Amino acid sequence: MKKRLLIVEDDPHIRLGLVDALEGEGYEVLQISNGAEVLPCIKQQRPDLMILDIMLPGKSGFDVCRDARAARLDLPILMLTAKGQEIDKVLGLELGADDYVTKPFGVRELMARVHALLRRSGSAPAETAPSTPSRIAFGDVEIDVAAMRGTRAAEKFDLSSRELKVLAVLYRRAGEVVSRNQLLDEVWGIEYFGTTRTLDQVIVRLRQKLETGEPRHLLTVHGVGYRLELSPS
Asked: I need a surface site. Which of 3, 9, 200, 202 has the fewest CB within 10 A?
């Protein structure tokens, strides 16, 4: 079942950008622009997490946070605070917010904090370490995972640890689109706040080793991520 997130933000550009990013990660997203509408929405829709701006019409984010905790609504609250306003961060946490992100923020950092809060609250399913295959094979490629070595059409190549981890994630989910953020979370870790350019560089190196000419197996899904096709048409 999809996790349901509530975005409370009156700036339409920020709000819609967050909606697009979170829906792209597979979340169901509710959105509100007026602080006075938040508590009735929480009680009716029961979101798993709220992303809450401070400056809102109707009722401030501080008041929303205070009222939510007074009503014993225990969903995780991630506050959006202004750059350099340390007092906003402190007051938000004192009123019951669980974490904060400072504007302007990167989508990677926001996603990492959302994922971490959901895991901490128990709203995210318990994770088990995914098993790593001992052998990866598709087309004319065969890889010995333990040895971190492979062959393509009898040509030998070595793989770095990062390249192997990225490939293993895609191989376990062959045929599915895996977003850049999901790959970064699984391979680099939830606390990684760098850019997706690092991942894209790993993909380039993998293609040099796994493909000949135009990619047929390791495909880019523009604006989303990557997909591994074991038997391309």
From this structure: 200
* Residues 87, 85: Cα–Cα separation, whole Å: 5
User: pLDDT for 88-126, tens place per residue?
Assistant: 778 888 888 988 888 888 888 888 889 888 887 765 544
Beta strands in 82-159 (DSSP E): 99-102, 135-138, 141-144, 149-152, 155-158
Number of residues that this document lists for the chain: 233
Structure tokens of 119? 């895991």
Q: Residue type for 1, please? A: M
Confidence of residue 204 (pLDDT cuts 50, 70, 90): very high
Q: Is the pTM higher than 0.85?
A: no
Phi-psi region of 58 (alpha: psi -120 to 50; beta: other; left: phi over 0): left
Residue 125 to residue 190: CA distance in whole angstroms: 15
Angle at the Cα of 195 (from 109 to 6), degrees rounded to 5? 30
> What value, to the nearest 5°, has the Cα angle with vertex 213 and ends 174 and 197?
65
Q: Are the beta carbons of 100 and 83 closer than 8 angstroms? A: no
How high is the pLDDT of residue 231?
Answer: 87
